Amino acid sequence: MIHLTKRMEFCAAHAYANPAWTEAENRRVFGKCGNLHGHNYVLEVTIKGEMSPDTGMVMNLSALKALIAEVVMDQFDHKHLNKDVPYFQDKLPTPEHLAVVIWELLEPRLETCQGVRLHRIRLHEDGSVFVDYYGERSADV
Amino acid sequence: MSEQMGPVGLPVVEVTHTFQFSAAHRMHSERFSPEENARIYGRCNNPSGHGHTYRLQVTIRGPVAPESGTIEERARLDALVQDWILERFDRADLNRLIPPCYGPTSTTEALALCLWEILDDLLPSGRLWRLRVEETPNNFIELNRTEMDRSAGAGLRPPMERGQKASEG
Predict the structure, then answer these.
(1) CA-CA-CA-CA torsion for B6, B7, B12, B18, nearest 10 degrees?
(2) Shortest CB distance from B16 goes to which of A87, A94, A130?
(3) Which terminus of chain B is less hemmed in, N or C, by CB atoms within 10 Å?
């Protein structure tokens, strides 16, 4: 099994606010992140599979790039995540939620690519914070 | 994406925060003669000491709480690292800070074990997931939950005496 990673960047704005909370409560929990601001996100999509003996590839990187562009970049790049992206209408656009949403968008599309599976979504919000998601869910809800 | 038809349970993610601190040290083990120390540690045994800008990556793992969109302890992770690690290890001499229970001298291994214990004590059980300590961009140590629990279970890493712990120093 070989892991293959494609790295892509997108830029987007967001603000944190939980509508169920008071303004003071939001300010206490989210601080400056309650103000509208933005990031240069760096997305690393890691897939796993076996190398094709014909092409020497796990997956054609240009196909993977086109898929990420269609599924992620077109919806997220240079957008206001709270306003423009439907997944964040009722969900805070934290890097944790972004990583999970991106997993849920990409995983079914990669399932149709023979012999390839999504392994990890790594999302860097800036140089000092990143989130990894492997598709795992807790049993206790 | 929404709960009604989505998978059951909360997504479990790993979040990594990166920090840095600058510290001096000298590699020297009392278990060896001065000649042996010079041979084993080479330049790092320089009696005057030397220093590094250490880079620290702390990874916590847990379910994403829907109301905050994050792992519960992430909001206080920066403050914990600031108060318990950076305040003490930045601009400091590691040889004075790493208790002998973590290793014979201030290697990155001993430093990482010491920092692991400090953070693991401060966070809920199992929340600390991975620690990466870079002495330089070319040399780094990684510790992870699975291996740390395994070595503790196998008696390779005896539980520290309370009085010895760096987290209480």
Answers:
(1) -40
(2) A130
(3) C
